Amino acid sequence: MRIDLHTHSTASDGTDTPAELVREAAAAGLDVVALTDHDTTRGHAEARAALPPGLTLVTGAELSCRIDGVGVHMLAYLFDPEEPELLAERELVRDDRVPRARAMVRKLNDLGVPVTWEQVARIAGDGSVGRPHVASALVELGVVPTVGDAFTEEWLADGGRAAVEKHETDPFEAIRLVKGAGGVTVLAHPGAVKRGRTMSEGLIADLSAAGLDGIEADHMDHDEPTRARLRGLATDLGLLVTGSSDYHGSRKTCRLGEYTTDPEVYGEITRRSFGAFPVPGAGGV
Asked: Virtual CA dihedral for 144, 145, 150, 154, nearest 10 degrees?
């Protein structure tokens, strides 16, 4: 089985619609794909309706968190999307995205970059607007060559010249909320140093004690020594280890299935969850 547990669609900052994404996942030879848009489950219904035979959909989201000034991305799988507490928190985070993006545009203007809110809104379309949409605007203007090059201290990385903080959930609270909604939590790319400051191993240990289920070790933003370190840490803490593409369509260079999760780990994720269940396409997996 080939399993990719971290992808994004136009419901947040990907370039494929949810329907296109599941079709591309099947074409890439995946057996299981998770749709984990930022702080939203809006793409799940479309993905379900378009699910090809032989492909299983894992519903999820990537939750925006922050602690001690460090941005944390928490992958949440198979939770009840209507559970009131978690739903209210996701809406609070999403509602802060537009004011934040507008503030980033103003900062960029002050730095002499002629980006406009209209340009960013056009790029975002119906998705939840975020930094990748602002980054894409910088690419369009020729300020940076790629979206990844916008995530530096010079521009949009945490603490960068044009960065703006938004409401983000405390990761300990995120674990509590996801668990209360019957879901499973995995830290996304916790060693991605080029995105800004990362969590200490001590903090990850504290999150593990609070109920964190796993760590995403195999990721395009982790070099091999980082992957090995995270696997060792996961072993010490009794955490699951996942691998995923973090696919964003044409917005990033990663390919669906570029990194994958072991079927036994996937099976454990499904065993631990009770808020929702994987959705098999006709024929199932």
From this structure: -40
